[in-house]
Specification:
By secondary structure, the chain is of the alpha/beta class. It has a domain of 245 residues: Alpha/Beta hydrolase fold, catalytic domain (Rossmann fold), CATH 3.40.50. It contains 17 helices and 12 strands. The relative contact order is 0.17. The N terminus is likely disordered.
Length: 536
């Protein structure tokens, strides 16, 4: 799922097989006491060297660093890659670090941190606050599917697969091959299971005996996987906007479409009260107008600032990001007016790209993996060399790596009509968009079973799980289901507000999370924050 922490637009399951889930017990360096276990001790001996972050316009007090991790944890001498880190230093008496993940999958941590890190400044009373670009994302060996010339020709509602299914399945395989070719050696080793192991290397490099962690949306899946892999190393762990650990991508897509449709209708009800609303003043007609506009742009796209046609599905993708927070509604209204009244898609495009501007460079892969035959050359990719398609490419790769389901050709063709009807019932706007995404793991290696089978009944210190009743991306029931699955260590905070995640939108949630991370003070299981406790 696309995910996002706060009120700003931002960027947001490849197979993981072999020695997944290897737990290195104890709080010191892992020892190769068994010759059958790979020796990872050299990775655990690192210390982060912090320096001023490169680039212009970044906060002066933001520092950057890196850690080196094995490309393949089962074969640590087969190659290694560098992960980009950033931090704000503790201003009070330091008691360790808090590691942040803002969601995605596919969202780079450092740009989000540079823009919105001030929201976490209360935590610097006791911690360095640290984030990172996960493997395959941002500056950490970013994956790519190429320059767009090999895009598959499947329409949003999947009609082409009904007309010529074998041709479309062939194009899906071609798309998977393109992603593998442009992403390089990191692609088979991308996914949450390996990123969780990377986080343990980061923990040790930061000098922390246990991991203190705050994860949003997809970042909650990552935190739950860490708790299952390294239960004795869990410190104070918070999951906000809790992801599912068990539902297949098809079911996640329906849930996402339903949540986004509800958010769209709430936006329309707000918009039509304004005379400047580009949909007019009748809510029922406004909902129909959204569908008409999407269909019209699919039939007759507009030229975009990125040189590619801006289609109806591009509009749907932008809406999906913009509807994560009510504070974005005024900007969304103005962007839609510019699109519909002036034919200018630039403003609405920024919601889908996190404000990125076109650079004129090619969207080519930028993976850097250092082979064991030489010393690391730094390994991190410069910001300007991150492929423009890294967000969707990483999102697909990580979701596919985390999902073991790979339907056969016959299953795809036989179930498509049923799925299309189910998705369109969930949302006439977002349903077709979500259905296309369900097909994107076709042609990729089967994903891991670890998350569904083994991320449960964890024996850790208490963890705080926050679910928001009006969350358009991660429904509240996922918080309850995941808490039950993780076991008695999970404490649930019920946020009765709206928007995706609670930390940035609710003063009550914000305060309870900070109190737990700073002082270990947990709210009672099942306690709540009211909808009136909105942020400033």
């Amino acid at each position: 799922m696309l995910a996002k922490l706060s009120t700003r637009p931002s960027l947001r399951r490849c197979a993981v097989t072999g020695a997944v889930g290897l737990v290195l017990l104890g709080t010191g360096l892992p020892a190769a006491t068994d010759s059958a276990e790979p020796d990872l001790s050299r990775f655990y001996r690192q210390k982060v060297t912090w320096a001023k972050c490169p680039g212009e316009g970044l906060p002066k007090d933001l520092q950057c660093g890196k850690v080196t991790v094995p490309l393949d944890y089962a074969r640590p001498r087969a190659g290694k890659l560098d992960l980009a880190l950033a931090r704000y230093r503790a201003t009070g008496e330091k008691q360790g670090s808090v590691l942040l993940n803002f969601g995605g999958p596919g969202g780079p941590g450092i740009p989000e941190f540079a823009e919105g890190g001030k929201e976490f400044m209360e935590l610097t009373d006791g911690y360095d606050i640290v984030t990172f670009d996960p493997r395959g994302v941002g500056r950490s060996s970013p994956v790519s599917c190429g320059d767009g010339e090999e895009d598959i020709a499947v329409t949003g509602d999947g009609t082409e697969i009904g007309r010529d299914p074998q041709s479309v399945l062939k194009q899906l395989r071609k798309a998977a091959d393109a992603c593998a070719r442009h992403s390089g050696p990191v692609l088979p080793h991308i996914g949450t299971v390996n990123t969780s192991r990377d986080m343990d290397v980061i923990r040790q490099a930061l000098g922390d005996k246990k991991l203190n962690y705050l994860g949003f949306s997809y970042g909650t899946r990552l935190g739950a996987v860490y708790a299952a892999q390294f239960p004795e190393r869990v410190g104070r762990l918070v999951l906000d906007g809790v992801d599912t650990l068990t539902e297949p991508l098809t079911e996640q897509g329906v849930a996402g479409a339903q949540g986004q449709q509800k958010a769209l209708e709430e936006f329309i009800n707000w918009c039509v009260k304004d005379i400047a609303c580009p949909f007019g003043q009748d809510p029922r007609e406004a909902r129909k107008e959204v569908v008409r506009r999407v269909e019209s742009l699919d039939e007759d796209p507009l030229p975009s600032a990125f040189g590619e046609p801006f289609t109806g599905q591009d509009l749907v993708g932008a809406l999906a990001q913009a509807l994560y927070s009510e504070e974005l509604w005024p900007s969304l209204e103005r962007a839609l007016a510019s699109l519909f009244e002036d034919g200018d898609p630039h403003a609405i495009e920024t919601f889908a790209t996190g404000g990125a501007a076109p650079t004129g460079r090619e969207e080519t892969g930028a993976t850097k993996v250092t082979e064991e035959t030489g010393d690391p050359d730094g390994g991190l990719v410069d910001d300007e060399d991150v492929p423009l398609d890294n967000l969707p490419a990483a999102l697909m790769a990580i979701n596919c790596a985390d999902d073991p389901d790979r339907p056969t050709d016959e299953q795809i063709i036989g179930n498509l009509d049923r799925l299309r009807a189910e998705y369109e019932q969930a949302s006439p706007v977002f349903g077709p968009y979500r259905l296309t995404g369900v097909l994107m793991c076709y042609g990729r290696p089967r994903g891991t079973d670890f998350i569904r089978d083994d991320v449960k009944d964890v024996h850790t210190s208490k963890m705080l799980l926050v679910g928001t009743r009006g969350d358009p991306a991660t429904p509240y029931r996922w918080t309850v289901e995941t808490a039950k699955r993780l076991g008695p260590s999970a404490v649930v905070l019920d946020n009765k507000g709206g928007g995706h995640t609670g930390y940035a939108s609710s003063k009550c949630v914000h305060g309870k999370i900070d109190a737990f991370l700073l002082y270990g003070t947990l709210p009672a299981d099942g306690s709540s924050c009211g909808p009136e406790d909105v942020g400033e």
